[in-house]
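Exercise: predict the fold of this chain.
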Amino acid sequence: MKLRSDGSFQEVPITSEDKPKVTEEMKEGWQNIVNLIASFADVRAGLIMEITKESMQVFMMSENESNPYNVGGNDYLCHGLYCESVIGNDSELSVVDARKLEAWKDNPDMDIDMISYHGLPVKWPDGEFFGTICVLDDNPMDLSDEKQRLLREFKASLEKDLALLVEKNK
């Protein structure tokens, strides 16, 4: 992971090959989550991203027409995606307007005018990273405390689903 805050690189544990696959039933619930958060936050994109050894890829996307992302779309690691910093720092990240921040003004999402971001890491029960849940917009976005709490609740819901999946597949 490339951390844009200081330009450093961080190794992190990601989904190992022995992890079960997310079921279709869970995907339906996750689809509702990204649709709800995009609508509630009034943003162009709600995403659940999955990390692989090579890239961050869109696992689920909100179904609003203005969303510029596609399921399966990916970008290679180590060039400073918003989600890389979330995972590399294992913490929530809020970028109100990347155009005004030296560390973020040339990040890859700027190519599609996604200037604002808010995201959280999503982990398996053993601490390996599944990816992130995030919202992005082409306007400055400063999520209210209520919207941030909602995003944290959705993150918790995803992690509970992953824990149930692991338990079920023991």
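Check your answer against the key: The chain is about 30% helix and 25% strand.
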